[in-house]
């Protein structure tokens, strides 16, 4: 560890917190549309399909830049890359506040997504530079928790801010906070004098091609992608319209309250995911199998929301938030199943697929919901039944593929766990 970062407290203040704050902001932007959608319907006249496209636009550049993000982080370091990306996010946020049409909103949202494309990967790169290896897992878990807190901030606090600001003014303020985050990284995070890998784009794509043709990767990736579509798609948008149109929660403050509790238990799920896996391990269930169990439980909860929504929607959404955070265990399993030198490119290859699916799926959900005539208060409940039902069926199919596939990891330690 570099001598100019001598203590854990210094690492916390000068490395962890600046990167965690940027990740916190990323989740605010991911989830804000679930609160502001009535204002966009009123002022811009967008439909459900438009709303899905607009929310999904965040993930377009987010996904598209993943193949080269690892190279940039290795070549220029996480500090410089994240500063540049946050400036793009600030620009996109300001443009969002200035937008008067769907097209302008989509372009602004894509810039915001590009600006936060390195929120997790830049932090992981920084942690590998400054923290000893035995602490990487714990620190990454805490970093994910910062994202969960950002999702909480995108609910009731955002709803409250709209009582004193217009939605346009909100995005101007968020642009300023993005610039503040970039300044914190510039002035607080120390430089690292370690020699970084200078992997070329050709090498990046060569390893990416190896990953994308691996059978074990394709054993996990379909389920991971569809469940992240369901989880992130609902947390970042569809929970709000669903509560209004299916759950009967017409009061905006009450909707924001349920969203707040859902993201709170999601944060708890992120923080406790490692503990849950450890508990499974103590009763003889491997990490691979325990991830499958939590994935099945999450799938069943999605089916509950699709086909038998209760009169009190709080309970299924609390389960949704907690259970949806747990199958992220598949990501470290996938990374560990490849040679150590592949780790960054395995993560970015997975992100490329996950966020491409989220981009297309968010828009598709909106198109399905739009197939039924609008009601007096919003969209038809039948549209949600078909859209959420499709997600449920796709998850069942991917679970079946996970069980039936014979793909094995390259790395020997996980071979038994994948049986």
Description of the molecule:
The structure is a single chain. By secondary structure, the protein is an all-alpha fold. The chain has one domain (8-414): MFS general substrate transporter like domains (Growth Hormone, Chain: A, Up-down Bundle), CATH 1.20.1250.20. The chain is 76% helix and 0% strand. It has helices at 8-31, 33-43, 48-56, 58-64, 66-76, 78-98, 102-115, 121-130, 136-153, 156-161, 167-188, 201-212, 215-245, 252-282, 287-307, 314-325, 330-336, 343-369, 381-404. The chain is globular. It starts with 7 loop residues before the first helix and ends in a 15-residue tail after the last helix.
Task: Write a concise keyword list for the protein shown above.
mainly alpha; 419 residues
Q: Rounded to an integer, what's the Rg over CA atoms?
A: 21 Å
Mean pLDDT: 85
Secondary-structure class:
mainly alpha
The number of distinct β-strands equals 0
CATH topology: Growth Hormone, Chain: A
Could you say what the CATH architecture is? Up-down Bundle
Helices and strands in order:
Elements: H1 8-31, H2 33-43, H3 48-56, H4 58-64, H5 66-76, H6 78-98, H7 102-115, H8 121-130, H9 136-153, H10 156-161, H11 167-188, H12 201-212, H13 215-245, H14 252-282, H15 287-307, H16 314-325, H17 330-336, H18 343-369, H19 381-404
Helix pairs in contact: 1-8, 1-9, 1-11, 1-13, 2-13, 3-7, 3-18, 4-7, 4-18, 5-6, 5-12, 5-18, 6-7, 6-8, 6-11, 8-9, 9-14, 13-14, 13-16, 13-18, 13-19, 14-16, 15-16, 15-19, 17-18, 18-19
